[in-house]
Amino acid sequence: MIDKETNVLEKRFFNYLADLEIDRATRYQNFVTLFYLEPDLEPDNGATLDTLAKILKEEFRTTDIIGRINHVRFGVILLYSDLQRSIVAGERLRKRIEDYLFSEKKKRTISLGGACFPINVTNSEDLISLAGRMLKLAKNKGGNTLCFPVKEDS
Amino acid sequence: MLNTKFTNKIDNQWIFGNSDKMRAINEIISRIADTDVPVLVSGENGTGKELVANAIQNRSLRKKKPFVKVSCVSIPGDLLESELFGYEKGAFTGAYQSKPGRFEFAHMGTIFLDEIGDMPLSLQAKLLRVLQEGEFFRLGGKDEVKVDTRLISATNRNLEEMVKDNKFREDLFHRLNVIRIQLPPLRGRKEEIPSLVQYFLKKYGKEYNRKIESISDENLDLLYNYSWPGNIRELENTIKKIIVLGDEGAVLKRLATRKSIEKPVDKPVFDDFNGYSLKEIGKRAALDAEKKAIKKVLAQTRWNRSQAAKILKISYKTLLYKIKESGLDRGA
Q: What confidence score (pLDDT) does residue B260 get?
């Protein structure tokens, strides 16, 4: 259930909770935002990812859900967070990592892509795929960027 | 979860029974399902309005998109607005965080507004805007929210009458009433009763694990001749009762005694109390009585209003207001 290297949720459980939260949000009329993020450079060791996961845990609320999607990608589910608040939170994270000194005093940057339910999409599959596309867009823009869809794109 | 989905599927096929009326409705649904036109489903309680909405959604191009159901009568008028359109943080006391409206959840999909006749007038204007422009503001919101939804609405009220009484916006009515599906009451399609009985016997026999193969001809006659004011839902529950109690005779005997309160078959559906609530009926009756009294006194005093006010023991101003409200004038 917990990824051993980074101490966050494994992909399977993360996706399960994503589905659950979308159901919950539909029922109780709430916002849910999904972020994907990746370091712009391939991390040279596990310690970098571990540090990244720690920053994520500090930066977001304890009730938000953090998971590891693959070798380098993390996912974050922000509960009760609409598009604007999520963009603020994402930007804050991007800035913090940009300024952070990783081990051996190295600086690193990340790319973030996200989407908000139900503003951008109305089901969990679309949320996952749109957040993925946004992350790709952010990387294509040269990294160290945050990408969110505007309503018309959805 | 799976189970309910399965039964829904059967029910969807089943509302389109073997009468000509229902076959025609089935045909209409098939024809309109893949378009985006608004549909208004009307019919008495228990005729299967929601099932029609489900069927439209299931056969539409939006099948895999969200299907949001909102019952306008189960949510108080003031709350309905925030439920449908959402609100922004700080819009009112207690709005500690923003909330998206039901319409947003139905983006790209279908929204089903049940009992739309119970929607307050003020909200009807806002709904009209969503239908026309596909956009709305959350309560206290600055940014327009754009949505693309198909609207299916249902009501058991007579909307035409409500439009005449200024209880329902005429422009909204025409917007909703693009395709009208009028479900006939069960008493108007009695030929379906035997097959419905068979269907429910089978369905609930399985569900409650009690087998009743069929109902005697004599009792079937009883079922056939009963007027079913609660329509298919009532029939369904009667069969359920028969299966659970295992005594068709007793259940049907009670049904037979209820015949005395049955509605005459050809009486117009909405005529009895125009769909008003008890409170409204009381209010209307009071207004009516007041109007009669005022008219009488005014005739006595030859429209000397200050004298009339004294007789009626109300202030002159109140009398003027009442005269205006009840639409009395000297010529009348």
A: 45
Complete DSSP assignment for A42-104 = --SSHHHHHHHHHHHHHHS-TTSEEEE-SSS-EEEEEET--HHHHHHHHHHHHHHHHH-B-GG
Count other C-beta atoms under 10 Å from residue B75's C-beta: 17
Q: How far is A42 from chain B (nearest CA, A)?
A: 38
CA atoms within a 13 Å half-sphere pointing along the CA-CB vector of B280: 8
Q: What is the pLDDT of residue B16?
A: 64
Residue of A nearest to B149 (CA): A122
What was the ipTM of the complex prediction?
Answer: 0.70
- Among A29, A151, A152, whose Cβ lies nearest the Cβ of B100? A29
pLDDT greater than 60 at residue B12: no
Q: What is the pLDDT of residue B8?
A: 47
Q: Do A82 and B100 touch (CB under 8 A)?
A: yes
Half-sphere exposure of B129 (CA within 13 A, CB side): 12
Q: Give start and end residues of each alpha helix (H) in B86-120.
A: 102-105
Nearest to B107 among A80, A122, A152 (CB): A122
Nearest CA distance, B308 vs chain A (angstrom): 56
Mutation target among B80, B108, B144 for the A interface, most CBs of A within 10 A: B108
Tens of pLDDT, residues A88-147: 999 999 999 999 888 777 888 999 999 999 888 888 888 999 999 999 999 999 889 999
